[in-house]
Design brief:
Blueprint lengths: L1 H9 L1 H12 L3 H14 L8 H12 L8 H30 L10 H14 L2 H5 L6 H11 L4 H26 L3 H5 L1 H26 L7
Protein name: VTT domain-containing protein
Family: Belongs to the DedA family.
Subcellular location: Cell membrane
């Protein structure tokens, strides 16, 4: 399964134009579902949200395509906001059941633990900042739901984060995705986007590791 997902991820730049050519405007629905599922289904945090948004923006910049950057931002922002809202409700009503040992194959304890630390440290802003971090992005609203975060606070940062994440990534693809060097190394660019998105979480983990007291030598 992981191999299939990796192959699909690395071939997004070939697969998405084929889907656009075959299905036209129905591709908006496909993109909506992918973004909604990545943000709304806590057991599927590995879908390529950042890469898909960037690629969609770059394709929207091409003449003759059915994709419109403004429509992409509106539709996919709604998908991201609804996804996080559903995830929040899942965490609020079913979170303690889904974190039991029998679900650990899908909801990795390490991911959840890292997300809880991030949420505890950054509070309300975690809902906004978490948008830009793969894996953590999916677990933040789930964790917010478990912690019974006030809904009016959650929805505010959810909307701001969803709009910002989709707008920045789609527009980056629109303005930068068709530069010659980017097009020539698109697969590497996709991997770089994921790596850059994960950088805050990696730095946080490194900082935590460096803060750990040294084990005394007997």
């Amino acid at each position: 399964m992981i191999t299939s997902l990796l192959v699909a991820f690395l071939n997004l730049n070939h697969l998405l134009p084929l889907l656009i050519g075959q299905y036209g405007s129905l591709v908006y629905l496909v993109l909506f579902l992918v973004i909604f599922i990545e943000t709304g289904v806590v057991v599927l945090p590995f879908l390529p949200g950042d890469s898909l948004l960037f690629l969609s923006g770059s394709l929207a910049a091409l003449s003759g395509t059915t994709l419109n950057p403004l429509l992409l931002i509106i539709i996919l922002s709604i998908a991201a906001i609804l996804g996080d809202t559903v995830n929040f409700e899942i965490g609020k009503h079913f979170g303690h059941h889904l974190t039991s040992p029998r679900f650990q194959r899908w909801i990795k304890p390490k991911y959840l633990h890292d997300t809880e630390r991030f949420f505890t440290k950054h509070g309300n802003a975690a809902v906004f900042l978490g948008r830009f971090m793969p894996l953590i992005r999916t677990f933040i609203p789930f964790t917010a739901g478990i912690s019974k975060m006030a809904y009016h606070r959650f929805i505010l940062y959810n909307v701001l984060g969803g709009l910002s994440w989709v707008s920045v990534t789609v527009l980056a693809g629109f303005f930068l995705g068709n530069i010659a060097i980017v097009k020539a190394h698109f697969e590497l660019i996709m991997l770089a986007i994921v790596a850059i998105s994960l950088l805050p979480a990696m730095l946080m983990a490194l900082r935590r590791k460096l803060k750990k007291p040294a084990t005394p030598v007997n």
